[in-house]
Amino acid sequence: MQSILWENGCLMLLNQTLLPERTEYITCRDYRRVAEAIRRLEVRGAPAIGAAAAFGMVLGARELSVESLDFWDKFAVIADELKQTRPTAVNLFWAVDRMFTAAKRYYQKESNTIHLISLLEAEALAIFEEDKEVNKRISAHGAALFNKKISILTHCNAGALATVAWGTALGVIRQAFSQGKIQRVFADETRPLLQGARLTAWELLQEGIPTTLITDSMAGWVMKKRMVDAVIVGADRITLSGDVANKIGTYSVAVLAKEHNLPFYVAAPLSTFDFSLEKGEDIQIEERAASEVTGFGGTTTAPGGVEVFNPAFDVTPAALVTAIITEEGIVTPPYIDNIRKLKELKGGK
Ligand code: MRU
Question: Measured in angstroms, how far is the CA atom of residue 202 from the centroid of ligand 1?
């Protein structure tokens, strides 16, 4: 099941808010619907959001005329609207900026609207295809870390649904499973929106990977009982110092892993690194509606009027991260030096 499809000039998004009960696609014919889908988490996961926004830029450009004097002002407004949907996942900003830069590059050569749009479409498709290929490389590097059959715990969903295909953390698990190295996956349910229960458990069962679903509060006990050998998660933004923003609850899992002497791995593409930020404190953490905490699926679970704090992400300090698995290989401490090397590899951007 593909999270994102580009068909006949429309973006089709698998509506992840309905999973696992229903598999329905949303047809996005304009960029506003793409922005809405990102905001509502109908498409979610850092790389998937980035790819969806790239196609959003194509849909946005289709509403404009390159010949008109205000083309660039209007295109910048569209880029900003897409960027404002969710603040934490840097892949969103990376993809929108890449599309804008590509438009500028092509514009110098060709100022015909139809031609510019077809070049932008090719750029969005390149982002789409690259994500698949990058995830395969991350998975190969990650699976090579394990030299015996292990049980592994994961948090949230960093699978095919969170990317264009295959996944990052779940990609590593898939690859390791195909090599006979995975005994069992423990999937945290991931309060409050249950990405672990609804999406990760669904993906893993489809692959026939032995999976045990636990609530977030059970992770410590599972580690204490030596039921897992390692933890692997995805990321939404990684700073130069190696601090990692990921789904709320990741930090707690990392602290627990340290206490139980378990390796804590992060799997992420280079597009998830924010080389402009030094430390985790500088990452903007999205806060979402109180209703996500006070109830689920139309059922209220808290008294009306109670104050709620609902950060969608937390930051795991680099000191708790054993290694970061990227398409270019495994990054280990000292992160500040080794992430700088990755930055140079990306041409300093
Ligand atoms: O709020 P979400 O569901 O978009 O959060 C997703 C995560 O935190 C993922 O772990 C992260 O984006 C990595 S996806 C490969």
Answer: 16
